[in-house]
Amino acid sequence: MQCSWTVSPKDLPLGEAAKAIGVSADTLRRWDRAGKLRTTRDSANRRRVPLKEVERLAGRPDRHATGAPLSARNRFTGVVRSVEVDGVMALVEIEAGPHLITAAVTRDSVEELGLAPGVRATAAVKATSVMVERG
To answer: Does 29 fall in a domain?
Structure first.
């Protein structure tokens, strides 16, 4: 643990630093103990994080915004290639550049969105499991 007893006015309390970096205060404590974070201590022996450390750790690249009020970040805009309705479900194929995306949606969704071949649509993909294959 790298600590100094000198507190600068630019040092942030642990909670504020955690919020600025986007992690929990417990994570910062662990990083401090592991030597991944340099902290100082105030007169009450509370950890404070130098502003330079906050800037260093918050300096990760920004993720792209969705551009929509939806949490899915992987968006493929293209043209509906086919719609197959069977009972209450439907398969919708969207051609988005070199990608062909097939979505299983409800019949109601097809009707409400007006999905038909030739219509522009966006497939918003949020997966909990993504598999990768070579060859």
So the answer is: yes
Task: Please tell me the pTM assigned to this model.
Answer: 0.49
**CATH code of 78's domain:** 2.40.50.100
Domain that residue 113 falls in: 74-125
Count, residues in the chain: 135
- CB-based contacts of 24: which residues, under 8 Å, 6+ apart? 18
The region of weakest confidence among 5-19, 59-73, 86-100, 107-121 is: 59-73
Whether 135 is in a domain gets the answer: no
Please name the residue that has the structure tokens 């499991």: 129
Whether 53 and 7 share a structural domain: yes
Task: Please check whether residue 85 is in contact with residue 117, taking contact to mean a CB–CB distance below 8 angstroms.
Answer: no
The one-letter code for the residue type at 96 is A
Q: At a CB cut-off of 8 Å and minimum separation 6, what does 52 contact?
A: 10
Provide, for the chain, the percentages of residues in helix, strand and coil under a 3-state DSSP scheme, each rounded to the nearest 5.
25, 35, 40
